[in-house]
Every structure is written in C-alpha cells, then in structure tokens.
Design a protein that fits this description.
The structure holds two protein chains of two kinds. Chain A is mostly helical. Chain A contains seven helices and no strands. The relative contact order of chain A is 0.14. Chain B is mostly helical. Chain B has helices spanning 2-13, 15-29, 39-49, 60-77, 94-115, 119-150, 155-161, 163-188, 207-210, 216-242, 249-273, 282-301. The longest helix of chain B has 32 residues, at 119-150. Classes of the chains: A mainly alpha, B mainly alpha.
Chain lengths: 215, 302
Amino acid sequence: MTGWIDLLFVLVLVIDLFVLASSRLRAGIRAVALQGGVLAFMPLALAGAATDTRHALTLAVGALVVKALGIPWLLARATRESTVSRELAPLVGFVPTLVAGALGIALAIWLGSDLPLPFPGTHPLLVPTSMGTVWAGLLLIVTRRKAVGQVLGFLVLENGVFVLGLLLSDFMPAMVEVGVLLDLFAAVFVMGLVMFDIQRAFSSLDTEKLSSLRD
Amino acid sequence: MILAALQLAAFLLLPPLLLGVIGRVKSRVAGREGPPLLQPYLDLRRLAGKGAVYSRTTSWIFRAGPVVSLAAVAAAGLLLPLGGPASTLSFAGDFVLLAYLLGLARFATVLAALDTGSSFEGMGAAREAAFSALAEPALFLGLVSLVRSTGGVDLTHLLGDGLAASWRTDGPALLLVALAIFVVALAENARIPVDDPATHLELTMIHEVMVLDHSGPDLAMIQYGAALKLYLFGALVVQLALGARLADPWLALLAFGLGQVAFAVAIGLVESTMARLRLVRVPQLLIGASVLSAFALILLLR
C-alpha cells in the first residue's frame, strides 16, 4: 500500500461494512452521506498530470452536493415524514449480511488485483473498492425488508459505480458526469414515488406486504 | 535497567489510577464533581483490610480463582513493552502467550463463578465465555496483521521498532487494527457498549455478576486484576497509536503515560455518550471488530 489515498478507499469499504451492520436507519443514512463525502474527494485525490483540473473539480463538487448533502437530506426528510420506524428489520440477520459483505470485499480485493485493465497506472484499490461497494449495495437491497433500507442499498451500489466511473472520467468526461449525477437522481425520485405509493396503499413501508396482494 | 524497572513499577502502581480517571471523566461529563482520582486505591485498601466470607458450597477452586487470575494478568504484563524500550520477557511468538495468559485469567474467574453454584453467576460466566470467544479472533487477526506488517514475531518488535516504518507504508490497515483492538479492549474490560461496570441489576451484568460472591481481599485482587488488564489493553492501543518510539527514552515513557491517560479519557467519553448495547447486539459488535481486523489483514496480504 502506498500513501494515504488508500485511506479514502479503505474508508469507503469500512462504511459499506458499517451500513451492512447498522440497524438504525438514521445511522445508515448518515454513513451513506459520509461515504458520498469521501467519494467527493476521490476525483481530486486521483487526479494525475493528465487530468483536467476543472473537470475533476466539477465532479468533486457535484458528488459532494448530490451524494453527501442532497440525497441524504431527502432520505432523512422522507423517513421523518412517512413515520418509518427507526429500526430496520432485515430478512437476513445483520451478522450473516456483515460476514457475507466482508467475504465479498475480500473476494473483490483478491480478484480485483488480477483484472486486466485497458489503462495502466490505476490505483490498485480502485477496482476492488468499486466491486466491493457494488456487492455491499446488492446485499443491502436483497436483505432489507423496508423500502428505505433498499434505497440506501441502491445508493451504496451507485457509489460503487461512481468509483468505477472515475476510471473513465479522463476519457469520457461528460458521459461520466451526466451518468453519475442524473441516474442517481432519477433513481431516488422513482424510489421516493414507490415508497410514497407503498406507504399510501398499505400504511406501512414493509415490502413483505406486497407479496400478500390478492384480488 | 532503570527504565525497565520503572515500567514494571508503573504497571503495578498506576492501573487503579486509570479507573479513577475514567470515573472522573464520566462524572464530569454528567455534570457531577465525581470521586477523587485516587478513590480506586482507597477502595482496594478498604477491601484488603476486610475479612473474606466463603460459602459452604464452594471448594478450593473458588479460592484459587482470584489468585490465579491476578497472577496470570500480572505475568502477561511482563510480555508487553509498557513504555520502556523493550518488554521484560521477549521471545518469538510471545503475543500468543499474552492472549492466552489473559484467557487463563478469564478461565479462572469463570471456574470460580461456576463453583459457587449460583444461577446468576453461571449466567454471567456463560456470557463472559461466549463474548470473549468472539473477541479473540478480532485480537488475533489484529496481532497477525501487525506481524505481517512489521515482520517481527515478538511484541517488542510488533509494538516498538517495526511500527514506525509500518505506519508509513500500511497506515490505513494499522488504523483498522487499532480500532478493532480498542473495541476488544472495551469488551474485555467490561466497559459500556458491552457491559456496564456500574450496573446493579444481576440479570444484565456480565463481568460483575461473576464476582458477586467474592469478598474482602479476594474482591480486592479481582478489582486490581481488572485494573491491570485495562492497563495492558491500554498499552496495546497506545503503543499502536503512538507508532514511532521517541528517541529519548524518558520522553517515550512520558508519552506512553500521557497516552494511557488519553485512553482512559476516551473510554470515559465512550461510556458517557453511548448507551449499553442489548445483549443480543453485543456479538454483532465483536464480529464487526473481527471483520475490521480481517479486512486489515486482507489489505496487508494483497
């Protein structure tokens, strides 16, 4: 390992594990916000000589505003107003998901270092972090019963995609920015609508109740 | 030579002061004046002056428990560098002995608790055994990460000479290890997110319920042993966090002492700001600590 840029990547992965293990909704939202903040530093930390500084700065500020401030704020407001219970009840227990997440991250670190990339000189932890974070997000979506928990999982997954997007940001700057910032927004809006609808129809955000639909 | 003697003397004399600092921090945060810093010493003297009461159902195991556990913890103190240039006893693989001397101390306490035949104490013993089994991987994976990073196999090297270079190359991993060992320290010393040292309800106790039947000098030995154990874990965390040893040995010793006080203050703050975890959530915390340690090891093996 070299230098303290590693710390950013490690922090992202540790936050993944924390979100997997935390049972409090509020703590989960805060952790995802913090993860967004850490991600915002990454375009700057990874900027090499060839990078367009203005572009990296745009990406950083965009990530900070959207990932660290905007979406967490929206989520926190949604949970406050839709009277979601503050405890998350998972389908699979916290310890199994935590262990599965840790195994996935270990696998990502093992595999990620062997994956051939078209561009040399990428940070050795970049691909593993991205894969591990996507895995953690998937786990969250699959194991959480409440829609809010699943939205959190989706955000974590998006963060993983963002990390991988940093690889491409030198080559396709506009694409990455638009892709990263817009689909996230769209997703959260969709999820917000879904949550609102579930809430209105069943007066609860428990997606279990969707499977008991009858005519 | 003087330094070696001094670090041992500090190990034997200072630990109750850490308890005093924790108590003081907690009461200050709560807005109270709090007991004097030296209160744990006074408690120990008071207990040592009393007579002991033994139940008729207990055997020699009950009497041996406090003695064995105090002796094991004190012997473990010989293996760690406690602010001096080296640990008193050092050989390859001594960190394994350190972990299992602490394990022996716990085993003696658990046996003594079971020997009383009290159901409360059996409950506490079961919990203590289960939680410490979960804390052990966190500690060991952390120590193995240190071995991997520093390239040494004895604690003097792990926590001393090798550490400065490791912090430069493997900083993030070492940070994870320090965090995991801090969580283990909280669990092993029956501190708040895991156990409440001040609780008075037997049903929720872990460590305290095991020593309910001990009295007088036996209880003094147990409390002194607990203080020594806190000092040992403090030494682990502090040496790890300090990283490089200062060139001047006296300054190094001073830095170590200040680090221990900071460790006690940190525990006091954690105890003041956190609520105790429900018993079913404790394994989750400990497994989380193990996962952190394992993650650090994976980063180092990469």
